[in-house]
Amino acid sequence: MALRHAVLAALLDGEYSGYQLAKAFDAGVANFWHALPQQLYAELTKLEADGLIAGRQVIQETRPNKRLFHVTEEGLAELERFAAATAKPSFIRDDLLVKVQAVDRIEAAPVIEQLAARARTAAAKAGILEQLAARLRGGRDEADFLAHGTRLGPYLTCLRGLAFERETRDWCERSAEILRARYDGGRQP
Amino acid sequence: MALRHAVLAALLDGEYSGYQLAKAFDAGVANFWHALPQQLYAELTKLEADGLIAGRQVIQETRPNKRLFHVTEEGLAELERFAAATAKPSFIRDDLLVKVQAVDRIEAAPVIEQLAARARTAAAKAGILEQLAARLRGGRDEADFLAHGTRLGPYLTCLRGLAFERETRDWCERSAEILRARYDGGRQP
DNA sequence: GCTAGCATGTAATCGGTTACATGATTTT
DNA sequence: AAAATCATGTAACCGATTACATGCTAGC
Questions:
Q1: Which residues of A fall within a CB distance of 8 Å from B103?
Q2: Most exposed residue of A62, B37, B155, B188, measured as fewest CB within 10 angstroms of its CB?
Q3: Gap from B97 CA to D27 C1', in Å?
Q4: What range(s) does the Transcription regulator PadR C-terminal domain occupy (chains A, B) (predicted)?
């Protein structure tokens, strides 16, 4: 069970609708997990049926009605159990890496292009995460926040995402440059 | 189709049996993809049926017989097509991050322990990848290898893996320290 | 008038994980 | 004598992706 606990963790910071959660789990701002809207709606239904979250209907005049969810005590207990169990290792699985692995046996140009594109999206995500980190710190400097701030968790996962995106950007840029120097849009000899 | 192309890319460097591939795709040394033995045996069967790889039986006296596979021209063409198609973005999905996200609402001690454990495995993987990088360079210095070496692909994915593992180690160590300073094995106030 | 955003889902499929199964040889 | 290594699979299940579906409001 995977998404389940990610949703519980996301709901710790307040009430969210499926739609709001979907936005958070989508786009680069998903620091610690990723999921599509359909998955989230399904998972919210199951979590509510299991009593781990509870929802309340919010009637809106000008917008469709929505349901806002929060974690119940049972839900918190479930998170607690999950966090105490040993985590399974995580793996890299990335199409782009497969392409780079093969790059000197196939046409290099499209791979170089994709590396450049990935570098750009990683840089953009890094920018967003920098802003998120600043917002989470809320004016304090980092040392102060780490010593006295509430909710270190989201800040730490944000730092992780930030480091990851910067790393991705740097590696993509460097790799693209190296490959350009070797193959310059052409093919392997 | 995902694993398919990872297997093709892995087979570019020579002939491998399912068993040998499984070792490469398992353990930390899977620079660019991860898969379990069962998946690999199934995928090899399909790839052979589709004519993208070909295998030859090797009869062994003291060991069970095995089949060694290599990529066919059709297989290479398929990789080519795959590499030219735009890559889908990759996402972080890590149990440990979910736990850290929730850390100040639940018992911190087990999370800190798991961060420390993850730091250790990441450090170990980094060590293995450093050795792999040195082996791929084969005595030359990096600039020389990047300019004149064959098979840049595996080296670049290795560098990526190395940077990722170091990053993971550093983040885990730092986060564990920060959390220890705050909660020191105890619970959130 | 058209596009983007709010809000929520169902159904089919695919890819990955878990569990189970076998059997010989080499190393501890 | 026990454990690890070589070598190859089958079957059931679960989680994630893709495709499809609906309908109203705000802004360009």
A1: 83, 152-153, 156
A2: A62
A3: 39
A4: 92-179
pLDDT digits (tens, 9 = 90+) for B111-135: 999 999 999 999 999 999 999 999 9
Element (H or E) spanning A73, and its range?
Answer: helix A73-84
Rounded average pLDDT per 10-residue block, chain A, 189 residues? 94 96 82 94 97 96 95 97 92 94 96 96 93 94 95 96 97 98 71
Closest to A48 measured CA to CA, from A12, A13, A65, A72: A72
Q: Which residues of B touch A5 (CB under 8 A)?
A: 95, 98, 102
Q: Are A172 and B164 in contact (CB under 8 A)?
A: no
How near does any CA of chain A get to the CA of B7, in Å? 9
Domain end: B25, B56, B84, which one? Answer: B84
Using only C-alpha atoms, chain A has a radius of gyration, in whole angstroms, of 21
B79, B151: one domain: no
- Total domains in chain B come to 2
Task: Give yes or no: residues A116 and A73 share one domain.
Answer: no
CA of A101 to C1' of D21 (A): 41
- Which residue range is the domain that position B32 belongs to? 3-84
Whether residues B73 and B127 share a domain: the answer is no
Domain closes at, from B84, B110, B137: B84
Residue B172 CA and nucleotide D18 C1' are separated, in Å, by: 35
